[in-house]
Each structure stands twice: as structure tokens, then as C-alpha cells.
Amino acid sequence: MLFRQLLTRLFLLFGCLAAANAWLHAEELPAIPDEYPAGPLGEVVQLGERLVLETKDHPLSKPYVGNQLNCTSCHLDGGTHPDAGSFLQVASAYPAWSPRENRVITLEDRVLNCFMRSQNGIRPPNGSRVSVAITTYITWLSTASKIQMNEKKPLGPRHVPELKIDWSKANPEQGKLDYQTYCLDCHGQDGQGTADGPPVWGPQSFNDGAGLSRVPKMASWLKVGMPLGDPSLTEQEAADIAAYINRHERPKFKLEWHLPEAHRLGEYNSQPSVP
Ligand code: HEC
Ligand code: HEC
């Protein structure tokens, strides 16, 4: 009897702690604006939102996409997911220092880089409708965030934190088994994707210049994002699966293949001597 009472109390206590934790976390979450801006600005925000959700199919963005992914494939829920590629508060981090470009880059540049790498496509010209609309949507999602430009790297305050584990222990053989258990139904036996999930390797996937092609980035993203709706992998499982996925072939990244003809470039904000 006494034992049961003790158990009940423990459950109550944990229940309260869980609730308090959920509340605290909810407090930290920046609110998503509940209304679009009025007039043409609001229309451009909504266009940007559509492009993020339908990147590979929308007639404006499709010419710049070279695979079967949309921005929302990785920036879950159109970037409103709080953890997995969140766009919340992102605009507040830009302009930011980018070690890769060896330059300070704008949010627009950052968006366009994801076209060349994660979308395995062609960089839309700076100032094009696609580029402005998506940047406007992401900026709108940061409404009310305090500007806090990032002097270290082009990442917002909610970027995926890198797991602190020993990457040399990531085991692709175990990852293969875990992939079959947790991922195969939606992403397919050959990583080619199904009606329920996009490709994760092969010709229709992101290229080897994309963030997710690096095992630590992929594992850290999986930890907060997959399986979809129930991100429940242990850190080791995430590392093993990431090592398995990224062991496969995917398109190669070569900058020249992803830049538009010079007259359509706008200005590519990069120091050419740095790859
Ligand atoms: C294959 C996955 C993938 C796709 C598709 C993708 N991205 Fe990304 N993107 C990433 C990853 C990974 C990062 C780094 C995020 C991190 O480390 O938290 C990133 C970073 C970004 C950032 C910077 C975020 C920050 O915190 O500063 C922006 C902006 C962005 N992407 C925009 C886009 C847009 C717009 C599209 C569609 C045109 C797109 N991405 C498509 C994976 C992807
Ligand atoms: C219930 C189906 C489902 C399961 C199970 C699932 N995913 Fe996904 N996954 C998706 C969908 C759908 C997306 C794209 C999100 C969107 O469009 O909203 C996605 C996106 C991804 C992406 C980024 C986009 C891309 O295709 O490169 C990766 C990587 C990924 N999943 C890996 C995994 C791994 C690894 C597992 C197993 C641990 C897993 N997923 C389990 C449905 C699923």
C-alpha cells in the first residue's frame, strides 16, 4: 500500500516536472506571427512560403532545383519546426560571417547557397523573385526577434546543435540495420524515396556539398527530426544511420555547375580563391 502511494507521488512529481519543462520550453519558443503583412509585402511573404513548401514543383523555383527535395524536406514544417532546420529567428543572425565564402553574407546569399547544394540546383540570381520571396518569408518568421548578427558562422540561434559524440565510433553496418527498422518504409530500400518520404541518397538527393552530406550534421539533424513526427533515435543510432546513408553515392558538388550564366548571377558574394 505504502509502496503504491510512493509510486503515485513519484508519478505526480514527474508529471509536474514534465509539464514545467514543456512550459519552460514553450516560453523559449519565438512566436510565429499570426498575420501576414498587408498589401504586396504580405503577398510576397505568402509566395515565399509556397516556394519553401513546393520548391521542386512551383514554376518559379523548379528551374533552379536539381533533385526531388523541397526546402521543407529538411526545414521541417516550412521552417516553423522549432528544432529541425528551424527558420525561426534566423533572419536576426544576418548578415553573418561565413568561413566557407570567406565573406560576410546576407540571408539572401544563404538561401541561394542551399539551392546549389541541398537542392543540387542552380543558384537563382540575387534579386530574382524566387530569391526575394523566400528571403522575405524567412525574415517575416523572425518578426519580433532581436537582431543578433552571427560573427562566427552563417547560422541562426536555433540551428541544430552538433551532437558531442565520438564520430569514429559511427558504425554504418549497425546503421544499415537501424535504417531498415526505422526509415526504410518511408525512404525506400535504395534510399530512392517513396510516396511517404523523399530520397536520402542517389541522383535525386542533395549533393556532397550540402550540410547533410557530412555525418555529424546529418546525425544531429536526424536526432531532432526523424523518424518524422517521432524523433526518438539515440545519439548512437543517429550517428550509425547517418554513416550508413552518407556511405552511398550522391551528386557531386562543383561550384561551376551550380552558378547561372554570368549575366544572370546578380553578384555572387564570395571570394573566388576559396572553394
Ligand atoms: C537536404 C536538406 C536541405 C534542403 C533541401 C534545404 N536546406 Fe537549407 N539548410 C540545411 C541544413 C542542414 C542547414 C544548416 C542548418 C543547421 O545547421 O541548423 C541549412 C541552412 C539553411 C539556412 C541558414 C539557417 C540558419 O540557421 O542560419 C537557410 C536560410 C536555408 N538553409 C534555406 C534553405 C532554403 C530556402 C531551401 C530551399 C530552397 C533550403 N534551405 C533547402 C539543409 C537543407
Ligand atoms: C513516416 C515516414 C518517415 C519515416 C519513418 C522517416 N522519415 Fe525521413 N522524412 C519523411 C518525410 C515526409 C520527409 C520530408 C519532410 C516533409 O516534406 O515534410 C523526411 C525527410 C528526411 C530527410 C531530409 C530530406 C532528404 O530526403 O534528404 C532525411 C535525411 C531523412 N528524412 C532521413 C530519415 C531517417 C534516417 C529515418 C529513420 C531514422 C527517417 N527519415 C524516417 C518521412 C519519414
Automatic annotation (TrEMBL):
The keyword Signal appears for this protein: yes
InterPro entries assigned: Cyt_c-like_dom (IPR009056), Cyt_c-like_dom_sf (IPR036909), Cytochrome_c-type_DH (IPR051459)
Designated gene of the protein: tsdA
Top-level EC class: oxidoreductase
Keyword Iron-sulfur belongs to the record: no
Domain of life: Bacteria
Pfam family of the protein (one): Cytochrome_CBB3
Organism annotation: Bremerella alba
GO molecular function, one term: heme binding
Domain Cytochrome c: 170-249
Enzyme Commission number, as recorded: 1.8.2.2
Protein name: Thiosulfate dehydrogenase
